[in-house]
Amino acid sequence: MSFKERLGTELLFFDGAMGTLLQERGLKSGELPEIWNAVREEVIFDIHKQYLDAGCDIIKANTFGANPFKIKGTGYTCEELVKKGIEIVKHAIAQSGRKAYAALDIGSLGKLLEPLGDLSFEEAYQAFVPMCTAGEQAGADLCLIETMNDTYEIKAAVLAAKEHTSLPVVVTMVFDESGKLLTGADMEAAVAMLEGLRVDALGLNCGFGPDVMQGFLPRLREITSLPIVVNPNAGLPVVVDGRTCFQVGPEEFAGVMKKIAGDGISVMGGCCGTTPAHLRALIESCRELTPMPLTDKNRSVVSSYTHAVELNGRPKIIGERINPTGKSRFKQALRDHDLEYIYKEALAQQDRGAHILDVNVGLPEIDEVEMMRSVVTGLQGITDLPLQIDTSDPEAMETAMRLYNGKPLLNSVNGKQESMDAVFPLAAKYGAMVVCLTLDEDGIPGTAHGRIKIAEKIIAEAAKYGIGKKDLLIDTLTMTISTGQENAKITLDALHYVRHVLGVHTTLGVSNISFGLPQREQVNTAFFTIALSQGLSAGIINPNSQAMMAAYHSYCALNGSDSQCQDYIGLYSEQDAQPKTSHEQSGFVSLFDAVVRGLAESASQAAKKELETKKPLEIIDEDLIPALDQVGQGFENKTVFLPQLLMSADAAKAGFDAIKEHLQAEGAASESKGTIVIATVKGDIHDIGKNIVKVLLENYGFQVIDLGKDVAPELVVEAAKEHKVKLVGLSALMTTTVANMELTIQMLKKELPDCKVMVGGAVLTQTYADMIGADFYSKDAMGSIRYANELFSS
Amino acid sequence: MKADRKETMRYLGYRGQEADPQTVRLIEEAAKELEGGSSPKSIYREYDCKVLGELVKIGGLEIQSRNLAVNLKGCERAVLLAATIGRTADFLIRKYSITNMAKAAVVQAAGAACIESYVDEVEEEIRKNARNRGLYLRPRFSPGYGDFALEHQRDLFQMLECSKRIGLTLTEGNLMMPSKSVTAVIGLTVLERESCQMETCSLCAKTDCEFRQEGVDL
Question: Which of A110, A641, A737 sits opposite B14 (nearest CB)?
Fold first, then answer.
């Protein structure tokens, strides 16, 4: 019988530690264990043999760190070390005469993925591919992805294994004492993603001994429908006289493991510090046990890289604002690739209480696939809310799903065969909950019955792909009541049936109900409340609408899902006590003062008021610039400090924005003082300093082309040429990246001899700056402003 | 781990001046978000240590560095240490860089204060453990200080299994990620008078550093 056939039906046993035993036999700290596949084959063979003799069913090949990053410079290739590793296991199994399985063991790459680190998702994926292919070719029976602490890296590894082999995939992770991965992901988030990716088993390894792991298992069993694997350490590592030791002995280890075994575990084994003696004791005490039968936990969840959102219980809010439909400013942002605008929309909705964010970035004139790639990657760096990928372009949809760190919501499939043929395979491959629109080739049925029929058709088709009802979210389609009085009733009747008779979750784009009517919010809130009471699981709404959020929170308080009305009271009690507390509203502040004191809202109001009597240019020259100068002066004299400088910058920006708006309304263009290209140089990924300079330069009226961080010299030169700039600003934090700064300056000077270069960053000094040929060294953010002002006024 | 308010202000450039109420509020908020949301982690291991002229041997690792050799002179054992406050600080900085740059700058400073305080805690644990064996700690010394080449980060990371144990990684350019992290070598000596608890600022090449402490180096 194959591993997959036995998995979940009988208790199976992994082996124990490899590294610990290799150290005892002379592996030096820092030496790569996988090299021993080539140079000390007999040692590896002997260790496998001992585990087989102890009764283990699955032997982990010595391939954990044989990835291209870790073996770089060793003289070996990933493929040969993996191949050799699997061969040694196969050889040991053959010689033992036992029925056992060889596991291709895949550990972490040891690098952090974007957005935090410098490794892209695709690069991570590519690094795992040669391990997977070599492992299967050499005869591995399964792929074990273990000791993982980042769901994103896990996803890259799982996709590599699934797309390049037909091996069963088992994933085990390291949770810390709070039950989270190092990325902050909780167990629910990890399980949601892994079940979505359809791995064969999941569980825990390393980090702790069996006693601590035992504490995590009840929750894990509650949330996963898959077989569970447990490979703990022999206790916590303890340093005794400078040596790392594991202190839980074989009998104690087996004792705790036996308790765990009766608790719904399918596969057990050991990690750091466990030995053949540990495994022998474990197997002797548990061999006769059978695992609890697997049950479907039937959870409807989506997840982000930190947490899962479950659709049972309290209804959820899906924020609808990241969508260009009917929003000219948003369309402009897409055309200008102004991602910051989109990110602000996301964070505002999160602040207002959205649980999930819809992401629609389609415009006919832009490359939607590339835009989706940028926006999904960017959003994952700034918000931990799950995303709803909203596109009708299958390529954009797949791109987003692949890059998404979690289990997303897909918006949407509909009852047309073509749509289901395109969307369901993607949902089945990457894992997702899917919004299903109740329309088909014949359009939108005008009756509740018609929409229910389509819902049933979609449910049946999804089942063919192994997508259960729990992963569907049916949208019975909101049509405006301004064109048909029956419309609300049809939608709600269908919704009620889908939720309560078919037992499937529901969603609606709520605000469509009032299209064409005055005072739409009134109708929207009423309809939203009724829909919630009819069984709406998740409303797609604008969370920035206070009335809609008030309707939502009131509903939750009324239907009992807000325990003791705690959330309602927490949100609204302050509004009673202090109607207007903001000091910004306590009196009029002049524009000059607002900027100096860093009050953004007041600055905007004051600027608008001044525009009634003064010309825009006068306001800039007489109020905004003098105020900024005063703050800048204070900063240089050390009476004003960085946070205040930035708050003032923020206030000034609010003032400038008001003026810009005014100019645009009059059809005049606002003038830029000049264009400056800025970048953090190649190899450097710290960019807060550069971002501060950007904010300040923009305030002084410069147009800033921000190339971001880790920017290659060629790209800087290209941008400087394209925008014909006479000033480039470069930032570097580390001594090691100053070399790249020098290279960038050399290339700039060669191609654009007239272009000036200013530099700044933690390690730079005037001496350094002179040495690498910079025109100006700015010791702080204000220095760059002074230099730019001088340069552009001359 | 604590985001010491005074340290945070020092990183923001204050030298004894009072902060305005808005900044005080930002510092409070940042400190709370970091203290509540971070999960600091560390790992350290002890090795035999030998100093031969300007060559330092720690376990199997060989480092050519005059400054480190001076720092470890006479030590027969040395601890390699890595510590990080985790990813929360980086996440918050990125988020606030979009919505509130002033707060991003404050989180940056408060994060620096957090990792300093955390490394001090870990060092204290090492100190206690060493005392029990009659050993004293030399000041910690990190790759990148003086002529201790930053490239040795690679070696430290391998020996300590940083990525697997505490989720700390290196970029291609040898930058640590999460960014609020520290690696260091700490020499253990039997001679109390040769240990010290001062920072070794004077060994650093960056003479105009904001944080340089003059006059306290040994």
Answer: A641
